[in-house]
Amino acid sequence: MLSRVAEQIFWLSRHIERSIAVSRLIDVTLHLGLDAGDDEALDLWSPLLGSTNGSPAESVEPSAVRYYLAFEPANPSALLSCIRNARGAAREVRESISSEMWEQLNTLYLAVVEPGSKQQAEDDPHLFYKRVREGAQAVQGLADSTLVHGEGWHFFCLGMYLERADNVARVLTLESHLLTAGSSSMREDETVRWLAVLRSCGSAEAYARYYSLRVEPARVIEFLLLNPLFPQSIRYSLNAAWLALRGITAADEEDHPNPAVRALGRLRAMVQHTAIDEVLEGGLDTFLSDVQRRTWEVADHITRIYLRDQGLQGRPMPAARAAMIMAAQQQQ
Amino acid sequence: MHVALSHLTRLEYGAEVTEGVMDVRLGPLSDAHQRWLRFDLRAAPNAAVHGYTDGFLNAAHLVSLRRPHRYVEVVSRGEVETLLDDPFALPEQAPAPLGRAERADYLLPSPLVAPDGRLEELAAPFRPRSPEHTFEAVQGLMSLVYREFAYEQEVTQVSSTVSDVISERRGVCQDFAHVLIGLCRAIGVPARYVSGYIVSLEQQQSQRLGSMQQSQSSGPTYRGSGASHAWAEAFTPTHGWRGFDPTNNLVASTHHVKMAIGRDYHDVSPTRGAYRGNAEEHLTVDVDVHPA
Hints:
The structure holds two protein chains of two kinds. By secondary structure, chain A is mostly helical.
């Protein structure tokens, strides 16, 4: 597979996953606002500016925050930017993805760039963000059911699960102050907040099935961080990303894994062999920022090794990778 | 004159390479002075060929080979009728003056013909007294290049600039064309690079009679007839665009077949490209041009 194609598929997938996370976050925060009622002191929106990449100047107007998260052209993680970038990537590799995937993604894009969409998003936010989320999820579903499960598909999974691990870590970081503020006696509204955390990761129902409806911060964190079977947990995501990466690496690399495989393997092992008590003792923030930093490192290695054709230090560049200029003929 | 030609370009690699892309400018170019009767371009092994027109209105082709391959071969064959019997005769209609864009293209410096004080020094004595004398002035510059520069292969490379050639005072037709273009531009005459072929009558004989009777050949042999050739075209107010071949000290006529035009070699290199791989590369070019 051409590295150019791999790169586009990888980022197509990351952007789709990120758009799902952003639309969930906005939707959940809106509902949280409704539950909170008229409590003016409660500022639910401005913390969100720190949760996606980059934050603008202090702005606490909820609609301004929603605009920034969903439509702001200067925000690379805005919903609109994600979907536009995903579509741009898909168009570059139109021949390597299925028509159904492309059509679904294009339909989603057209629905979001439509002039009336900003108004729709404010008039009926739940419907709007639910549609966007479902549209993006349909792209993932079509990728699963219409792509050959070969290299391209592995890059799609790799992008999706790395992005998911990163997003869940972000959402948890956002709420980690609740845990440190005073965990012994949970106030009513904190239960609501933790439920919202679960919902923004699409995990409330699965959590309820696991732990019944007792919402305890430590259990919520354990579920989102360490659950081995739930596909929205960080542990599951890292494991799935690792399997995808193993699907990409050549068999002869088994004995000499490259830095990407090593970095992801170590991260996966760390999350797998950590208990929730240890996480809380060492500090949730520290643990989460460690996970995020190492996820970025993995993505960085993958970019260098697979997507950009840059050689590894100390190893000769594979013969098939270097770009060379053809000899030109002199006119004599 | 009817001219038959074939031009083979072959790149061989010591190991398999992938993702080869080659940008090809081998014609066909038809204008008032030449007309193609047939043209055929083939690329091997099993390459995708996409034809397009570039910014100078040259016919160009993009040859791409995605799969692993050990060689690339591009062959163009064709027959062209050259029509400019007397390049000195004034055209029936006075040529329309050049537009602003064309003047900018062909008067301003280009990558391989950068400004050089020595160009202005050499060209200054030839500055025409009036626009009507431009043709003679360019002829004078052409003879100057022919006299002052020695034809020698293997001294310069494809990427040699006009300044390199002036310092060296030696080179091949590509270099002489660049020098003449620089000289023309230095005295305000728009000039462009022509990539093409020159028909040698020597080849006419050898083609028709075989190598045994080569000694009987009577026509002149021109330099640059073994590979693709290059010369300069200058725009004169009296004649319009006319070709000046400083390698042979010849105003281009029916013996010159054009492939493509541009500001310098950079714009019109017959083939150029890139590939992925780490292999030794060997380039072979074989040009055969003879009167049909």
